[in-house]
Amino acid sequence: MKKTLLSLLMLCTAGALSAQICVPNPAYADEPFGIWPDVEEGFADGEVGVVYGQVIDFKVPSDLSDIPDSPLSGQVDSIIVVGIQGLPPGLSFACESHTPSNCTFLPEVPGCAVISGVPTQGGVYPLQIQTVIHLVAFGLATSVPFNYDDYTIEIDGPSSVTEMAAYGLALNQNMPNPFHDETVIEYSLNQPVMVEFNIFNLLGRNIHSRQLNGTYGMNRIELSASSLNMTPGIYLYSLTIGGQSVTRKMVVR
Question: DSSP string covering 201-243, please?
């Protein structure tokens, strides 16, 4: 777990909204520091075309010398996640920052982040978490870049999803987007077919599902955030035919 907790930075994304992205797991509240899941457990595998969600819990140490074999030492002021390189296509990350600044985390405060989206290409993806550690060493404030590369994400499935082409499915971006309450989703088909419609939050939890009688040509889905109890945040919506899905992202303000 040497660099492990430094990876805590792995959370977060520059595009985080004011809505709460995640809630730290209370099971780790009494831990002095760490990141969960750890490297041994690793991040969850994913599947092409299926909604993916990985919650990351962590706690930053107040002193880097507390970490066994740490290459750095000093009192931690904060850690900032600059970015994560190598995420599978279709996935992004979002963080619950401790400060108004994006992806900034304070020592000894439980934190969390989410990697989510819909993978579009299979493979094994090594991740590089790029961070900057603000610390005080030998009485001087300094900032140290630190890259952490011990995590991977494996996505199962073909390199592309072609089965949907038989139905001529074209799923449009909801309009308007972002929206406060009401929005419209349109999709087209080249033949009638039963379609499953789902909405997921960033944690991958299904918050709405319905079966649709898809007809030839353009189809229309009208949504009300208030009627579905959708709080401000980022959501994923998908249409599924014969076990294959097409997914888009929408934002409730």
Answer: ETT--EEEEEEEEE-SEEEEEEEETTTTT--SEEEEEEEEETT
The CATH number linked to 115 is: 2.60.40.10
Count of domains observed in the chain: 2
Shared domain for 179 and 89, answered yes or no, is: no
101 and 167 co-located in one domain: no
Torsion angle (degrees, nearest 10) of CA 229, 20, 67, 36? 10
Distance CA 156, CA 46 (A): 6
Mean pLDDT of 72-88: 86
- Strand, coil or helix: 5: helix
Kindly report the backbone phi and psi dihedral angles of residue 66, in degrees, each rounded to the nearest multiple of 5, phi listed first.
-70, -20
Q: Name the token pair of 65.
A: 């010398």
Cβ proximity of 236 and 248 under 8 Å: yes
Is 72 a residue whose pLDDT tops 60?
A: yes
Confidence band of 19 (pLDDT split at 50, 70, 90):
low
Please tell me the distance from the alpha carbon of residue 98 to that of residue 12, in angstroms, as a whole number.
11
- Do residues 103 and 202 both lie within one domain? no
Domain limit, last residue, from 100, 132, 156: 156
Domain hosting residue 66, numbered range: 4-156
Alpha carbon distances (Å) from 184 to 173, 176, 209? 9, 7, 16
Tell me the pTM.
0.61
**pLDDT computed for residue 175 by the predictor:** 95
C-alpha distance across the termini of the chain, in Å: 38
- Percentage of the chain lying above the pLDDT 90 cut: 32
